[in-house]
Q: What sequence folds into this?
């Protein structure tokens, strides 16, 4: 994946996104220890949750991760170019015409209904039994074999014998809420289903499920958001390290006085003398518009409240508390003082959306790329 660079010879006055690959590796080790003796796979769909599937996957491979999940066949084929020897699973399913590409790149499809199971078995009939995962729905009603199909498969498990079934998997709906009754219901239904099928490795938990306990681990967990610093359990302390730092460049600092207003819609009116810092990040960069009047940035340890609306390319901060701040300085928009979980709360969303929205205009830097 290309890392964007400033034009040769030009000073780098641009907001910068720094991804700490060593922190991702540390999070991976923590999750792997929590999940042991189950294995720990990495989920790097949506370009590694927006942080760059290539650098993230390479770093995790170096850390010992051998199984990677992505959403689409396209993502899987792109990852194959980065990781020649990993097991790469695409979750979206085996769609018409895709089987040859799966075989060509040695990728594992996730078979999401009986038709896909039979199609993969038929495709394997004239050659080697190729690997795949089978997804059993236990409460998401999204992808995977439905209740009726699950019963049909249990009564005719021979349908799995035409290929190499590496994992049977399912996905939890409410794992970030440990007390939710669906967690135990899905766990029981999954355990019951795999007991009725030929013996094969099983995988249920994603990031949050790892923290529900050993009964949810089975043979392989699939860690996504927690690798990238997302809090696995709602309302509990976050054991994951922060991975992302976004430093926004201050383009201008101005003194204002009442009755001036700031930004579109004149939503913020000054009550007295103040300083405004204008920073190069906006909703076109994934700095969500729902942060209007709600976000904050940090100048060292000093919080600078976001005032007015987020516009396409710019945000405005109340910099009254930062008298030394000048144009060309940077402020922390995401980082140790204001991580993706806090920002997500400010924006009324989840850290997954914060990360996958991060824009392409930021200069991207990776720490820990080569060891
Ligand atoms: C996205 C996804 C994961 C990873 O989920 P996180 O909550 O990010 O850990 C695991 N399994 C499936 C099926 C997914 O779609």
A:
């Amino acid at each position: 994946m290309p890392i964007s660079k400033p034009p040769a010879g030009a000073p780098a006055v641009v907001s910068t996104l720094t991804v700490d690959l060593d922190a991702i590796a540390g999070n991976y080790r923590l999750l792997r220890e929590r999940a042991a003796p189950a294995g720990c796979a990495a989920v790097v769909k949506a370009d590694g949750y927006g942080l760059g599937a290539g650098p993230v996957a390479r770093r995790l491979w170096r850390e010992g991760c051998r199984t990677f999940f992505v959403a689409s066949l396209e993502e899987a084929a792109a990852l194959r170019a980065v990781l020649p020897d990993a097991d790469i699973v695409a979750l979206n399913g085996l769609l018409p015409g895709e089987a040859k590409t799966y075989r060509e790149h040695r990728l594992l499809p996730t078979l999401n209904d009986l038709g896909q199971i039979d199609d993969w078995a038929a495709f394997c009939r004239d050659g080697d039994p190729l690997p795949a995962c089978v997804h059993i729905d236990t409460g998401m009603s999204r992808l995977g074999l439905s209740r009726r199909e699950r019963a049909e498969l249990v009564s005719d498990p021979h349908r799995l014998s035409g290929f190499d079934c590496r994992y049977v998997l399912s996905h939890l709906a409410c794992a970030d809420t440990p007390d939710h009754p669906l967690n135990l219901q899905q766990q029981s239904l999954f355990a019951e289903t795999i007991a009725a099928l030929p013996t094969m490795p099983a995988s249920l938990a994603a990031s949050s499920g790892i923290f529900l306990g050993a009964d949810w681990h089975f043979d392989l967990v699939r860690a996504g958001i927690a690798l990238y610093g997302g809090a696995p359990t709602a309302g509990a302390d976050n054991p994951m390290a922060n991975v992302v730092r976004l430093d926004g460049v201050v383009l201008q600092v101005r003194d204002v006085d009442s009755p001036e207003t700031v930004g579109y819609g004149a939503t913020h009116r000054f009550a007295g003398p103040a300083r405004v810092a204008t920073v190069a990040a906006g909703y076109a960069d994934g700095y969500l518009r729902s942060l209007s009047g709600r976000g904050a940035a940090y100048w060292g340890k000093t919080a600078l409240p976001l005032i007015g609306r987020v516009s396409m390319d710019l945000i405005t901060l109340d910099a009254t508390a930062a008298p030394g701040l000048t144009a060309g300085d940077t402020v922390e928009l995401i980082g140790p003082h204001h991580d993706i979980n806090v920002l997500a709360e400010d924006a009324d969303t989840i850290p997954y959306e914060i990360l996958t929205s991060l824009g392409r205009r930021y200069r991207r830097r990776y720490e820990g790329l080569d060891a």
